[in-house]
Amino acid sequence: MTRRIRRGKEKEGGGQNLLTLRPRFQKSDQLKMQSNEAPVSMEVEAVPCKPSSASAALPPKPSFEPLKAHEMSDGRVQFRKVSVPPHRYSPLKKVWMEIYTPVYEQMKIDIRMNLKGRKVELKSRADTPDVSNLQKCSDFVQAFMLGFDVIDAIALLRMDELYVESFEIKDVKTLRGEHLSRAIGRLSGKGGKTKFAIENATKTRIVIADTKIHILGSFANIKVARDSLCSLILGSPAGKVYSKLRAVTARLAERF
């Protein structure tokens, strides 16, 4: 009652201190008012997007097929010639079909024997799948001429990391007469025992042709076999070479 009397007096007194009281609404009344309001819908105009002139001007992505072997050499035929030593002429005639079949049918390389020049001639064909096939076949035939068996030399066609390394005994140590003969005997061993042991331990193939030594295998294996052969040439006994070879091969097996 006192508050109403005071407000009345203030109104009567000229309205200098007028109080404006805001209406108080409950939460339920606010929710009813929000629900009564009509939702405003926004109309979105769909404008078709036009491709930019830069993307429309680009040509289609080209697709290039891989070149064939004869196309890489501009259609020119490549040749390889391998000389046949006199002492390998008869063995070549015996196993000619074993050499001819993988070279011609699998590697797609033409091969023939030139009887007049005593050379094996290799030629690439239009359907040769790879450029390196010609060189692989040349290495295969050359390995046979050095004295390797066809079964061992054919690995050159199937694996890329194999190659042949050759050296002479005089490259390691200058030996003459009986000293040279004893060195060759140490390399071979009794019945080829030492040579076979080195081959099996290092996974290589070794050919001892007089004073020349040829090793067929991978780079790491050839190095181990060559070190063992050099130790034998320098005069190390076979037992010492075996023990050292056993330790090196065990280390290689752990690495891989």
Automatic annotation (TrEMBL):
<feature type="domain" description="K Homology">
    <location>
        <begin position="161"/>
        <end position="234"/>
    </location>
</feature>
<dbReference type="Pfam" id="PF22891">
    <property type="entry name" value="KH_PNO1_2nd"/>
</dbReference>
<dbReference type="InterPro" id="IPR036612">
    <property type="entry name" value="KH_dom_type_1_sf"/>
</dbReference>
<protein>
    <recommendedName>
        <fullName>K Homology domain-containing protein</fullName>
    </recommendedName>
</protein>
<keyword id="KW-0539">Nucleus</keyword>
<dbReference type="InterPro" id="IPR055211">
    <property type="entry name" value="KH_PNO1_2nd"/>
</dbReference>
<dbReference type="GO" id="GO:0003723">
    <property type="term" value="F:RNA binding"/>
</dbReference>
<dbReference type="InterPro" id="IPR055212">
    <property type="entry name" value="KH-I_PNO1_first"/>
</dbReference>
<keyword id="KW-0694">RNA-binding</keyword>
<dbReference type="InterPro" id="IPR004087">
    <property type="entry name" value="KH_dom"/>
</dbReference>
<dbReference type="GO" id="GO:0005730">
    <property type="term" value="C:nucleolus"/>
</dbReference>
<feature type="region of interest" description="Disordered">
    <location>
        <begin position="1"/>
        <end position="22"/>
    </location>
</feature>
<comment type="similarity">
    <text>Belongs to the PNO1 family.</text>
</comment>
